[in-house]
Amino acid sequence: MAIGPTIETERLLLRPPRAEDIPAWNAFHADEDVMRHLGGVQGPELTWRSICTMTGAWTIEGFSMFSVIEKSTGEWVGRLGPWRPNGWPGTEIGWGLVRSSWGRGYATEGATAAMDYAVDILGWSEV
Fold first, then answer.
1. Could you give the residue ranges of the DSSP H alpha helices within the chain?
2. Residue 12 near residue 109 (C-beta atoms within 8 A)
3. Torsion of CA 65, 59, 84, 123, to 10 degrees
4. Radius of gyration, alpha carbons of the chain
5. Which of 51, 81, 103, 107 is packed most tightly, with the most Cβ within 10 A?
6. In what order do the strands lie in the sheet with 7-8?
């Protein structure tokens, strides 16, 4: 059962997280460089909670971060999308990508699509 949309860009698919993403998400959270500004390295237990938080936000808020899938390989390369947890000071588009995808313009490509979604579909007037 889909809990949110899939957005397609030139090189990426943005879709809600799935159980099949857990191994890649674990590796993402275990990389010290990747997690430097994202709360620090997290083990599998906290990673599971993070995925469940993102997935639960789709149900409760109607939006959350997407899993970022590289179309050419089908690989999970990060998470990206609208984010506004309870108490957050505003609406934002956040992202975190696996190190092997850095420097390819994926954050810009995905964030542009996520901003369009937030404005056009969610009705956000500020990002």
1. 22-30, 32-35, 44-61, 106-120
2. yes
3. 90
4. 14
5. 81
6. 7-8, 12-15, 66-70, 76-83, 92-97
Residue-level length of the chain = 127
Which domains occur in the chain, in start order? 13-98 (3.40.630.30)
Q: Locate 16 and state its tokens.
A: 């809600």
Report residue 6 as tokens: 């899939």
Q: Which two tokens stand for residue 94?
A: 């956040």
Distant-in-sequence, close-in-space partners of 44: CB < 8 Å, separation ≥ 6: 26
Residues 6+ apart with CB under 8 A from 106: 11, 12, 68, 70, 77, 78, 97
- pLDDT tens-digit readout, 64-107: 999 999 999 999 999 999 998 888 888 999 899 998 999 999 99
